Amino acid sequence: MNGEEHILSILVRNKPGVLSRLAGIFGRLGYNIETLCVAPTLDLAVSRITLMSRADSQFTDKVRKQLDRLVDIVEVEELPAARALQREVLLMGIDCSGGRRADVLKGIDLFGCRVIFMRDDYAVLQTVGAPEETETALQYFQSIGIRDMARTGIIALPKEKK
Amino acid sequence: MEKNGAEILLDTLREEGVKAIFGYPGANTLPIHDGLRDHPIRHYLMRHEQAAAHAADGYARATGKVGVCLATSGPGATNLVTGIATAYMDSSPMVALTGQVPTGLLGTDAFQETDIIGITLPITKHSFLVRDPRDMRAALRQAFSLAKSGRPGPVLVDLPRNVLAGRCREEEIRPDEPAVKKTGNGASLDEAVLDRIAQSLNQAERPIIIVGGGVKLSGACRQITDLIERGNIPFVSTMMGVGAVCIANGLNLGFIGTHGFELANRMIHQSDFILAVGTRFSDRSTSTVESFAPLATIAQIDIDPTSIGKNIKADLALVCDIRQALTSLVGKVDAKEREEWRERIRKEREALAEKNAFNGCGNPGRLIGLVQEALTPTAIAVADVGLNQIWTIRSWKSKAPRGLLTSGGMGTMGFSVPASIGAKVANPDRNVVAFTGDGGFFMNIQELATISTYGVPVKIVVFNNGHLGMIRQIQDLFYGARLSACQLGDRVDIVAVARGFGIDAERVDAACPEEGIERLAASREPYLLEVMVDPDHYVYPIIPPGKSNVEMIYGRSD
């Protein structure tokens, strides 16, 4: 779906079935979840879900009201890009064969990648960065040859806590 | 002392004030049914789980208390689904209890296993799977609290058989979780918004109040009546709001929408300020959204934030308990005569009067009026769905609170007979009469057995036109009179069927039902009146699909 990026940071009770209740609301309203991260907070009874959707201007109002009705949802906060710090982890399996190695090493230097695994013809690299950095790294290595890729989706925190 | 999960369940139900549950047993609910043998709670054995859900819903609608239904796992649970959805759409407080396969078999496609929590996610406020008898009490208490708090609705509690049979000591039972969220109850009254609503009402020249079902749910019938009378403010009702205000002084314009009164629809179109209370502006009320109330500023009060602006944009919105809001609003509204606006309404009403004999319902409308006159003023009417529903909503005069029940949002055919059982069980001292068509009657006809077995003295009026009347009307008017799949025929002798179930019954013609009505009203036993209706007898006026509220038609020629 086209539209502007909306990042929601949602605190939920850490119990079975909560994610399906939450996801059901997005599906019924016709919004696609582009990225999704779930992990416990310092309070193990509560998890934080960070998700991103591209959607129209009614998105936040509609979704938020419905989410607020769910018993297992503790708090819903939208994080506009301007006041949020966003990070994403990207793992890439890169083809290093046939003289590509020099470009790969250049990219590792350029984007500050960590090398997690490497042999003559194949390397697995990790980047951590803001969404733009991740996209740029992805484009660079795509031109060399990505064989396998996984990304975590965005996690985010506000720049200042209220 | 040790108790099993089922005993903890039943004791918690009793503590919650439950006196009756409507259910049907299966292998996975047997610990509960075993416990019921020695328990003061009365279990009504229905003949189908769907009817158990409707009976619990009827009980809830007739009392405001939480209705409880019980079904086994698998097909028992899935048979509840229509009834749960019906309660959800009309915000009726219900706790649905379902048996489940033992926890060790969950997810193995065991015999009669179904993921009923997954199936009912979009039609429940919340649901619980109880995994340990020690959690039983807390889950039940939360379920009841959620079902009746904020905007009420159904909550499902899934009960694996080993949890029902498993035992624990009283001191092992876990305490309630302290912070169960009561959705909607956090909202507080914003006096500033209320002041602006009051100011708009005071300044408006042609104000109208829309009374929605939420007014009844929050127990604000007296408060909204006070507001209407103090400000001399004309009002319309949604289908679910009908009956909230029982005054007959020219301010009542009737109910709005597709099958509503032309007066109500016309005046909404002319109004300059609308205060909508406890309504989501469903499509049945507004018809085409773009042409709804083009001249009006709209203010909305509702306890559920998702109802605000869902279908119609509100210029002023207040999320809070309706009774609390109206109590405060009454003090802020000026007493006014509104002579000009009321005169305009009076003229419109007179101009429309002759088009609307018996509120546009003809003989069936007249018959419903006669039935009501023959019964005590506290009588409860339970309307089914279709032409019979519109006839009943238009013709039954609001005299008593919770006096008119119907499936408004879901439009569930077959609702009326089982719901009337629940309403009667809850109100042994009030007359309860179900009005249904032959279509809806056949959908839960098995409940005649429940009625006669328990001797629940409900009255049933079946309008028999041999057709699905509303479908026939739509095909007749808007599909070039090409009737398809709407003919039920006349081969079934409904009176004989009723007698076969052990229920006294007779057949009358819609044009001369007086003697039959006398016997219906006088009977102290269950009684069924079959009313023969001409299949060409439709509901007029009606708004054609895609047309606005002021484009009502009175026949094919319009």
Classified by CATH, the class of the largest domain in chain A is: Alpha Beta
Distance between the termini of chain B: 75 Å
Main beta-sheet strand count, sense and barrel state of chain A: 5 strands, antiparallel
Q: What is the alpha-carbon Rg of chain A in Å?
A: 19 Å
Give the beta-strand count of chain B: 20
Q: What fold name goes in the CATH topology slot of the largest domain in chain A?
A: Alpha-Beta Plaits
Overview of this protein structure:
The complex is a heterodimer of chains A (162) and B (558). Chain A contains 4 helices and 9 strands; from the N terminus they run βαββαββαββαββ. Chain A has helices at residues 18-29, 59-69, 101-111, 131-144, and strands at 4-13, 35-40, 46-55, 73-78, 84-95, 114-119, 122-129, 146-151, 155-158. In chain A, the strands form 2 sheets. In chain A, strands 5, 6, 7, 8 and 9 form a 5-stranded antiparallel beta sheet that branches. A 4-stranded antiparallel beta sheet of chain A has the order 2-3-1-4, covered by helices on one side. In chain A, helix 1 packs antiparallel against helix 2 and helix 3 runs antiparallel to helix 4 (131-144). Chain B is of the alpha/beta class and 558 residues long. Chain B has 3 domains: 2-172, Rossmann fold (3-Layer(aba) Sandwich); 191-353, TPP-binding domain (Rossmann fold), CATH 3.40.50.1220; 357-532, Rossmann fold (3-Layer(aba) Sandwich), CATH 3.40.50.970. Chain B has 23 helices and 20 strands. In chain B, strand 2, helix 2 and strand 3 form a beta-alpha-beta unit. The mean pLDDT of chain B is 94. The chains are: A alpha+beta (162), B alpha/beta (558). The A-B interface holds A 16-17, 20-21, 24, 28, 61, 65-66, 68-71, 73-74 and B 117-118, 121-122, 125-126, 129, 146, 180-181, 183-184, 304-306, 308-309.
